[in-house]
Specification:
Elements lengths: L1 H22 L4 H16 L3 H17 L11 H8 L6 H13 L7 H24 L4 E2 L4 E3 L5 E3 L17 E8 L10 H16 L2 E3 L2 E11 L4 H13 L5 E4 L2 H13 L4 E4 L15 E3 L4 H15 L6 E8 L2 H16 L4 E9 L7 H10 L3 E5 L3 H13 L1 H8 L2 E4 L6 H5 L10 E3 L15 H12 L7 H21 L7 H9 L2 E2 L10 E2 L11 E2 L1 E5 L4 E4 L4 E2 L18
Parallel strand pairs: 4-6, 4-7, 8-9, 10-11, 10-12, 12-13, 13-14
Antiparallel strand pairs: 1-2, 2-3, 5-6, 14-18, 15-16, 17-20, 18-19
């Protein structure tokens, strides 16, 4: 209990420091003095003041004011999940009963599709009842209402906005910005896999609008992971391509455009990045996240270290950080966790690198000199492979393993063919907080019915199934397709408001994720689709990720995140 109170107080003080920074001037010294003054004021409170602060901290915790670690469950919830404890047994039992009512044979493709249809039918029935009663949907006042207080003022949309833009007599036009050139070009393969899935839908089970089929048409723009280019392409998708919805890839890219996309009232679900900012249904209701947030991943790194390296505690941790909004979300999250858990982390050294750097030799030399017990790669794309390779070449891999420490690669670099196999023996024994995703080339999953379905479709479409990033297109495309089908069956048919309502209330089984990972959204109350992960270690001999222990899931417990672009962290 004492530990929980300390954590809540730290969260409150951090929130206060953000407010002080936002309200003060731009002078660093003045901001520092304000932070010190705030800390000194609360250092020796009276008994009544301490009680008030504790109550306020609990309120802040409930409301989600958790600094950089917004977008994650509270530390105690995650640690309880890691330890296998469940503080809400009644809720767990209720959810289990609901799951039992929806039992289907997931060992066959037919069973998976039957379950998807049944879950869609339930969602449609539930939403239709609430729409027809006037509880959900767009009311006479122009407010779109949905679950758990979710609402959008449609009257604030542009004067030329239409609920059916992008839906033509033959198409549903969806815009996508991604990197198909540059240092992160490998991620562009996700778009080809997504398009491959949509092509299968068009040919085998098309989306029906007004009783007639519409082809899902993906309009792909290569922004080369350059935010300025993303801005230009999003303008083009809105103004010239007249798209129904938009999907973006990359944290800096999405941060550059998600304000405009929301101002334009365009659905922007299942963004291809785990930045916590996408969990902001109040200020950015059209944008949602798909994968586990980087804030949750940061806490899980810490929880793993606490549980698995007791003889080394407190440890020195070095992080290799991509120097952009993506990497800094990791850096901020883990820094805040480390500051609050000095019994686990004695020192934390983040070393930033240019996203376009051809090598990481200098950065790894700096990290090697720091002599860390734990190394965490907080990067993406080809630098993930470089980090594994150069850790081996520099001697860092041997040094850390000799101490009994650990090396982590990030969840965004779970792909075996792209990031682990090319590193050879240097990849053996690396850890990952994997976000629950399945690699389509992993021997453990390759014969599963849905994975076989994915790989056969890719091959039929001229795409090499050995490139697992193609299959990740199905990871994103599958919930997108399910939400489109739900929206199409609601009163009024497929339109933007029905689509975002379907997204914000989606509850589905995702066959591209590990069993135990719950995939749901619930209006303003639950803004994170995936809130769980596996702990896995790479076996270079077998070329597989070996899951160690149970999947950890904190579904529905992540706090919302109104991201502060100027200062970082969640307001």
């Amino acid at each position: 209990m004492t530990k929980r109170r300390m954590w809540r107080l730290l969260a409150l003080l951090f929130a206060f420091s953000l407010v002080a920074a936002a309200c003060g001037g731009g002078d660093d010294d003045a901001d520092a003095d304000a932070g010190e003054t705030e800390t000194e004021t609360t250092a020796a409170p009276s008994e009544d003041e301490a009680m008030d602060e504790e109550e306020m901290a609990e309120e802040e915790d409930d409301e989600g004011a958790t600094g950089a670690l917004g977008g994650a469950a509270a530390e105690e919830d995650i640690e309880a999940a890691v330890a296998g404890e469940d503080e809400d047994e009644e809720m767990a039992e209720e959810e289990m009963m609901e799951e039992e009512e929806m039992m289907f044979d997931r060992s066959t493709l037919e069973g998976i599709f039957e379950e998807a249809a049944a879950r869609r039918a339930k969602s449609v029935a539930d939403l239709t009842e609430k729409i027809e009663s006037g509880e959900y949907g767009v009311g006479d006042d122009g407010i779109l209402r949905g679950p758990a207080g979710f609402n959008i003022d449609i009257g604030a949309c542009p004067s030329d906005w239409s609920d059916t833009t992008g839906i033509t007599d033959s198409q549903i036009r969806i815009g996508h910005t991604t990197a198909q050139s540059g240092n992160l070009a490998a991620y562009g393969n996700i778009a080809y896999g997504w398009e491959n899935y949509f092509n299968w839908i068009n040919e085998n089970d098309p989306i029906m609008v007004g009783g007639s089929p519409r082809d899902l048409t993906l309009i792909i723009k290569d922004d080369a992971y350059v935010a300025a280019q993303t801005i230009e392409f999003v303008d083009e998708l809105i103004e010239a391509e007249n798209v129904f919805s938009i999907l973006t890839l990359g944290s800096p890219n999405t941060l550059a455009v998600y304000d405009k996309i929301n101002e334009e009232c365009i659905p922007h679900p299942f963004v291809m990045t785990g930045h916590p900012a996408w969990g902001d249904p109040v200020n950015h209701p059209w944008t949602t996240i798909m994968q586990m947030s980087y804030s949750t991943e940061s806490i899980l790194w810490g929880a793993w270290i606490r549980e698995n390296l007791p003889d080394l505690l407190p440890v020195k941790v070095a992080g290799l950080v991509m120097d952009n909004d993506f990497g800094l979300a990791y850096e901020l999250g883990f820094h805040e966790w480390a500051e609050a858990n000095t019994d686990v982390v004695s020192e934390y050294l983040p070393v930033r690198h240019d996203p376009a750097a051809p090598t990481l030799t200098n950065e790894m030399t700096t990290i090697l000199a720091f002599e860390p017990d734990v190394f965490i790669s907080m990067t993406a794309g080809n630098p993930c492979l470089l980090a594994v390779q150069e850790a081996g070449q520099s001697g860092l891999y041997d040094d850390i393993n000799a101490k009994g420490g650990a090396l982590f690669t990030p969840s965004v670099c779970k792909g075996i063919e792209a990031y682990m196999k090319p590193a050879g023996d240097a990849a053996d024994g690396w850890w990952i907080i994997g976000g629950g995703s399945k690699d389509s080339t992993d021997p453990k999953f390759i014969d599963e019915p849905f994975m076989s379905f994915v790989n056969s479709n890719l091959e039929a479409g001229g795409l090499d199934p050995a490139v697992s990033l193609y299959a990740i297109g199905y990871t994103y495309g599958y919930p997108y397709g399910e939400a489109l089908r739900i929206a199409a069956d609601l009163p009024g048919g497929l339109n933007r408001t029905n689509f975002i309502l379907a997204v914000r209330s989606i509850d589905m089984y995702h066959p591209m994720l590990l069993d135990g990972i719950i995939t749901q959204l619930n209006g303003n109350a639950d803004a994170y689709f995936v809130e769980g992960s596996d702990f896995s270690q790479f076996n270079a001999t077998e070329q597989t990720w070996t899951q160690v222990g149970d999947v950890v899931d904190v579904n529905g417990k992540s706090t919302n995140c109104a991201w502060d672009k100027d200062n970082g962290g969640c307001r």
